Amino acid sequence: xxxxxxxxxxxxxxxxxxxxxxxxxxxxxxxxxxxxxxxxxxxxxxxxxxxxxxxxxxxxxxxxxxxxxxxxxxxxxxxxxxxxxxxxxxxxxxxxxxxxxxxxxxxxxxxxxxxxxxxxxxxxxxxxxxxxxxxxxxxxxxxxxxxxxxxxxxxxxxxxxxxxxxxxxxxxxxxxxxxxxxxxxxxxxxxxxxxxxxxxxxxxxxxxxxxxxxxxxxxxxxxxxxxxxxxxxxxxxxxxxxxxxxxxxxxxxxxxxxxxxxxxxxxxxxxxxxxxxxxxxxxxxxxxxxxxxxxxxxxxxxxxxxxxxxxxxxxxxxxxxxxxxxxxxxxxxxxxxxxxxxxxxxxxxxxxxxxxxxxxxxxxxxxxxxxxxxxxxxxxxxxxxxxxxxxxxxxxxxxxxxxxxxxxxxxxxxxxxxxxxxxxxxxxxxxxxxxxxxxxxxxxxxxxxxxxxxxxxxxxxxxxxxxxxxxxxxxxxxxxxxxxxxxxxxxxxxxxxxxxxxxxxxxxxxxxxxxxxxxxxxxxxxxxxxxxxxxxxxxxxxxxxxxxxxxxxxxxxxxxxxxxxxxxxxxxxxxx
Length: 576
Description:
single chain; 576 residues; alpha/beta; Serine Threonine Protein Phosphatase 5, Tetratricopeptide repeat; Leucine-rich repeat, LRR (right-handed beta-alpha superhelix); 14-stranded mixed sheet; globular
């Protein structure tokens, strides 16, 4: 939003009914002249008059805040006051919050600056830029635990060597000033292992306790226009959000596309080919793509599922001639293997190549850097993901269910935009130790695998809402599991727990817990204190009626289902 746009356009509307001594034309002329000459004091005085006339138009406050930020000396307090009024009308304006964050920082109101950064992260997601500034604000506010976590999350995202070095150092400083001197020394000792130069001087200063907080808390505020901010927050990944409807286990966009009527004859559409944006050519007995298809240059979505293409290299060569193609469904195409020229599909964002008999994924899949959705489900011979999977930094959704995979590759932890991983009904034994790097994950399905150990870093997945670990070989959960405060549903059934996993007791937002068919006989009554918990599925053979009654005395509204008969047991209303 530009100042001229707000000032001129909204004034043009306002001046129709204004009744001051200045005519509409005079006020507009003076405003334009002040703005063109950058006479910010005059701009402010004119906006004062405008606000007196129409105090409920929020854009006037935004314009005045911008003007106050340009006078010399800046009226920083005035900027905060005006933007606070504007944000009360427009709470989701991340631009206004960004400007107010800067003003709060100048006023050394770092806790308030931190609140604005947190809200921007809520609106725009966790980016390297925002995480770095969240860390800086928290550090300056002496909230070292928040700073440490923010810098650690920033370190998992891409950046220049200098950026990463600076972040690493402040991660160390946060530990030191937060009381973890040993951890700070340890991390400095491992600078070279992180690709940075050793720093013996820093090691000595930490050992001698000679670091000075005031010297380190002097942060240079980022100098960028709102246009540059927009570019930073919306990187090369497209603005398409696969999960606007909050269904993390499926993508509604593909469901709508699946209802698209199949095209029997492309030639009938040629007269209006420029108006065609989606085509369903599934199960049409094609052995190669129709020649007419390349004429549909505006085509964005294409379903070619169920066709048996002979020349796979030619298939992808032809697909690459569709310059706007973003969605490609090519499941059940008997591909067996992907050719090297898969990398030609540079603009594809959604790719479904499930049920193709794939035995491996070509490393060139990693060149499809705009991919947000990748499904290779039901390829039972597929043993692994390519090493290049870590290059898919825009990836939000990954489905490898029904595969022959025995692991989720470590490189997957680089895909920091991932929201959903579906990997059930496979042969997975290990999860990446660094899975905690996937800080945007909300949904994970790892049911029906062979997993024995859950990495400690899972506790860093603070956005996680739904987790399925049923039918594995898990005997215990790491203590960090209790950090998953946003987790709403978890399934742990058919595992090897010898006692109830008490880590779930700290999950304040958990509403559904499946825990049946393990080797413990007692569920602690404290489960009844989990006020968000609404349903629990327990083992009918091991868990006694007395145990259930003890839980329900604490939470009569908790519905407990016994797995054998699916008979509901609810509080004292239970009947034998």
